[in-house]
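Title: Comparing notes on inverse folding

I've been comparing how different people in this forum approach sequence design from structure. To keep things fair, I'm posting one structure and asking everyone to reply with a full sequence. Here's the target:
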């Protein structure tokens, strides 16, 4: 829907407020840029966010939103989703704005930000479609006038480390795609479900995890008997802490069963993350039986930090939650059972949202899920 010079990205959310298109583009660009900066493509991802929905400046799309809203109010069937395409026009802009090679990489990213990354033939045909080109020429001046810096790419370092082969390029495109989709989804969610934001971000960081782990490990070692096995465990732990100071790379830890790997490797990972400004640690193993044991140990260690400290994400998690819920309900009064159910619902909501983008400082998962 359009009112004067105001354009909208989505129909009204709570309170009947329409989602302002320019604000959506700018907020998505900001978050996408923050995501992309973590792998050296902040400016490229920012442009993806700024351009991804320019097709919504199309008057036909604004009419489509109006029709959807009015149909919803009247209790009628809303127009078919996707009946007025919009992603293709941001892709055309990226194709036309070829001041830098990196911008061409945004074509499939923007074109597929709803349906998924397309193959080359699919988006190439769309870029050459005469009807799409005609609509683009009509909406482009409006988009340029409404969005600041929409084509300000001169002199920008879009990618700090450009890919040197096709494999690196494919990985980079997928990472920028992920940065955009996450930013777009979360800004849209904030419009339709503003209360969801309170569950989104964990207030616990890797530095909090490291502090708790080191305190508990220090206490554990102080109580350990002076045996040969405990001496080896101490050596392994200290070696891991020393290695955490090294530059990022690939590290290998070969220790027999009983050597204290579970805590030592986590101590290494957390200190390494803090030392080099990383936000999360991902622990992956091939079997859920191993993960159950590992996640259980981590939960005991970080229990004081609450549910936001650890995200366990694999196929068996739901079964484990149901089993724990059934056990925790035994012998409880109705009021206490209701309170417990509410707490578990909140925990599940946080976990469900965290699984969407692994927004937790410690993630435990399977190698398949990873």
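Reply #1:
Here's my take.
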């Amino acid at each position: 829907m359009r009112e004067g010079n105001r354009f909208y990205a989505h129909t009204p959310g709570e309170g009947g407020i329409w989602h302002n298109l320019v604000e959506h583009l700018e907020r998505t660009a900001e978050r996408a840029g923050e995501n992309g900066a973590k792998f050296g493509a902040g400016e490229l991802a920012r442009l993806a966010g700024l351009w991804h929905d320019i097709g919504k400046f199309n008057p036909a799309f604004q009419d489509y939103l109006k029709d959807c809203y009015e149909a919803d109010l009247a209790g009628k069937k809303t127009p078919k989703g996707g009946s007025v395409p919009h992603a293709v026009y941001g892709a055309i802009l990226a194709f036309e704005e070829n001041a830098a090679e990196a911008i061409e990489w945004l074509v499939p990213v923007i074109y597929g930000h709803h349906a998924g990354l397309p193959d080359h033939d699919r988006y190439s045909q769309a870029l050459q479609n005469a009807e799409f080109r005609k609509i683009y020429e009509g909406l482009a001046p409006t988009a340029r006038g409404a969005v600041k810096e929409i084509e300000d790419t001169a002199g920008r370092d879009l990618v700090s480390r450009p890919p040197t082969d096709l494999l690196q390029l494919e990985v980079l495109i997928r990472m920028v795609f992920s940065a955009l989709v996450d930013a777009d989804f979360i800004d849209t969610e904030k419009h339709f479900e503003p209360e969801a934001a309170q569950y989104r971000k964990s207030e616990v960081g890797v530095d909090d995890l490291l502090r708790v782990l080191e305190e508990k490990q220090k206490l554990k070692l102080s109580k350990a008997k002076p045996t040969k096995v405990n001496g080896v465990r101490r050596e392994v732990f200290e070696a891991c802490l020393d290695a955490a100071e090294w530059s990022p790379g690939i590290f290998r830890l070969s220790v027999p069963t009983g050597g204290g790997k579970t805590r030592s490797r986590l101590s290494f990972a957390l200190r390494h993350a803090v030392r080099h400004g990383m936000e999360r640690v991902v622990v992956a193993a091939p079997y859920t039986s191993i993960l159950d044991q590992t996640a259980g140990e981590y939960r005991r260690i970080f229990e004081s930090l609450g549910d936001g400290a650890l995200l366990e994400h694999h196929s068996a998690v739901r079964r484990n939650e149901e089993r724990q819920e059934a056990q925790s309900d035994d012998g409880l009064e109705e009021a206490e059972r209701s309170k417990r159910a509410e707490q578990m619902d909140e925990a599940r909501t946080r976990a469900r949202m965290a699984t969407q983008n692994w927004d937790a400082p410690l993630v435990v998962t399977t190698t398949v899920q990873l």
